[in-house]
Amino acid sequence: MARYDKDHKRQTRERIIEAAGRRLKADGIDGSGVSTLMADAGLTNGAFYAHFASKEDLVGAAVTEELRRQTASFLKSVTTREDLAQFVKDYLSPEHRDHRVDGCPSAALLDELGRCDTATRRAYTAAMGELLAKIADVIGDPGPATRVKVSSAYALMIGTIQLSRTLTDPKLADDILEEGVRNVLRILGLNSP
User: Fold this and answer.
1) Whether 67 contacts 127, CB under 8 Å
2) 114-172: per-residue pLDDT in tens?
3) Closest residue by Cα to residue 130 from 74, 59, 50
4) What is the pTM of this model?
5) Second label for 118, Cα 20 to 30 Å away, from 82, 102, 126, 128?
6) Key word Transcription present in the record (predicted)?
7) Ranges of each domain in the chain
8) How far is CA 56 from CA 24, 73, 153, 160, 164, in A?
9) How many whole angstroms separate alpha carbon 19 and alpha carbon 29?
């Protein structure tokens, strides 16, 4: 029997989490079984419990990692209010709408995350809280009122993407994205000309 060092186990776990993040955004939590998630990582079902206590454990880890990546990307690209306005425009774009797998985990999974266990929802809450705090910092007021405003704006962004993805009328779907951009920029005090 081959023995692997701790680094191999860590790398394998990371590979599973990365593959699961993409699959979950594509097919949803309920649409992604353990065997599919493991196959995406190039592993068998038998290896699953060496890394995770349950599917919920993997979902929590994958969503947390997806949000960590989103926050890291945000921090690299958003340092000014102008950058934040561009972030909103990019988020509420046809490209983001049409490429769910490469996009925001909240927009892809929020409805299902609400039905997850408390540990998964706590992991999501902590990771989302970090992103929202970073957005409030860019606005220049990390106080509680701004956090509420940022939370409301982000919820509008998520709902706008979800609705736009659902519609079969391409013009209406695009119009909803454009109106979403205007509304979010107004809420955040980032009105553009």
Assistant:
1) yes
2) 999 998 899 899 988 988 999 999 998 878 889 899 999 999 999 999 999 999 999 99
3) 74
4) 0.86
5) 102
6) yes
7) 55-187
8) 12, 25, 28, 27, 28
9) 13
Residue with tokens 């982000």: 154
Q: Is 44 exposed, middle or buried (0-12, 13-18, 19+ CB in 10 A)?
A: exposed
d(CA 180, CA 25): 22
CA distance 54 to 157: 31
Residue 116 region, left (φ>0) first, then alpha (ψ -120 to 50), else beta? beta
- Report whether 63 contacts 127 (CB < 8 A): yes
Report the CATH architecture of 55-187: Orthogonal Bundle (1.10)
HSE on the CB side for 49, CA within 13 Å? 1
Count of positions (residues) in the chain:
193
The alpha carbon dihedral of 65, 71, 77, 83 has a sign of: positive
Give the pair of three-digit tokens for residue 32.
Answer: 């992604």
Convert 47-64 to b/e letters by CB count within 10 Å (16 or more is b): ebeebbeebbbbbbbbbb
